[in-house]
Amino acid sequence: MTIPQDPALCIDLHCHSTASDGTLTPTELLARAGKREVTHLALTDHDTINGLEEAQVAANANNVVLIPGIELSCLWRSRTIHIVGLDFDAEDKAFRAALAQQHKNRWARAAMIADRLGKLAIPDLLERATTEAGGDVPGRPHFARVLVEKGIVKNPAQAFKRYLGAGKAGDVKAFWPELAEVVQWINSAGGVAVLAHPRKYQLTATKLRELTADFRRAGGRAIEVSTSGQSSGDLGFLAELCTREKLLASQGSDFHFPGAPWCELGRIMKMPDGLEPVWHHFKQVPGAAAPV
Predict the structure, then answer these.
(1) Is residue 276 situated within a structural domain?
(2) Do 198 and 137 belong together in one domain?
(3) CA separation for the pair 217, 220 (Å, rounded)
(4) What are the percentages of helix, strand and coil residues in the chain, rounded to 5?
(5) C-alpha count within 13 angstroms, C-beta hemisphere, residue 204
(6) Has residue 44 got a pLDDT over 80?
(7) What is the Cα 245 distance to its own chain's centre?
(8) What is the mean pLDDT of residues 3-21?
(9) Coil/strand/helix, residue 69
């Protein structure tokens, strides 16, 4: 199945719901996508596909084509990297088993974050963060909300700056599989592995080229060329990387919550001409609600 590169289409292949660290339910997310005239959306929650069934019902109701998606955490040279999986078979048994293990990894990480933040003397910190996550595995944004509620910090940004950001006590990265393994999970389920938001890892140009090359050698097939928070220089550099490694080009807002105009569903800088869109290679698109 191929989605044509029609300028009338609005394709967003990276966003989050309450199934991970977003603030909108899958139903609310698809309703917002429909109102913003998004024609094709991939729900890519962190390490889970639990929101896909609800999202598909809402996609049909809002005339949006839903692409099966996920964002998986992994390690590359001891750094946490995110790989988006698109257009996979969500019923693949081996893939589901891998996700179950990743789910355990996330719980172990959450427990360690709570333990490391124990000096803040917040009782039942893990339990409170789990409540913030709707009963599922809490991530750092959920811990940040608890810190705000308890008056430890004024806002989530301050929580990350002091306790949860890179190099801080709550920055736990030790539980993820290696990049090549995660790429293999996606490939084995018939999907396309996409290197997510490459400029957000704060790598030098040389290191990012090395990451992209390693990703391609591991079987990765696409790179997010256009995503939120990028400059035109970023866009050009990522387009060059995409061409250099002969990868497909993807795009997505990485939407998490309303109220941030720089990161909104469907608001994506146009990709440079001459790149091969990843959506020209999709196959597993069930229940398409709009003509494609």
Answers:
(1) yes
(2) no
(3) 7
(4) 40, 15, 45
(5) 2
(6) yes
(7) 22
(8) 84
(9) strand
Largest CA distance in the chain: 55
Poorest-pLDDT segment among 109-113, 122-126, 195-199, 204-208: 122-126
- Pairing, β 11-12 against β 40-43: parallel
Q: Which run of H or E residues covers position 81?
A: strand 79-86
User: CB-based contacts of 162: which residues, under 8 Å, 6+ apart?
Assistant: 153, 168
On whether residue 288 sits in a domain, the answer given is no
Q: What pLDDT does 3 receive?
A: 67
Distance CA 13, CA 141 (A): 22
On the question of pLDDT at 291 being above 70, the answer is no
Q: Three-state DSSP class for 44?
A: coil
What would the DSSP string read from start to end of 247-275? -EEEEE--B-STT-TTS-TT--PPPPTT-
Amino acid at 30: L
CA 16 – CA 32 distance, rounded (Å): 12
On average, the pLDDT of the chain sits at 92
d(CA 112, CA 174): 10
The per-residue pLDDT for 5 is 61
At residue 180, φ and ψ (nearest 5 deg) are -60, -35
Does 264 lie in the same domain as 183? yes
- For tokens 């005339």, name the residue: 63
Q: What is the mean pLDDT of residues 220-230?
A: 94
Do residues 187 and 268 share a domain? yes
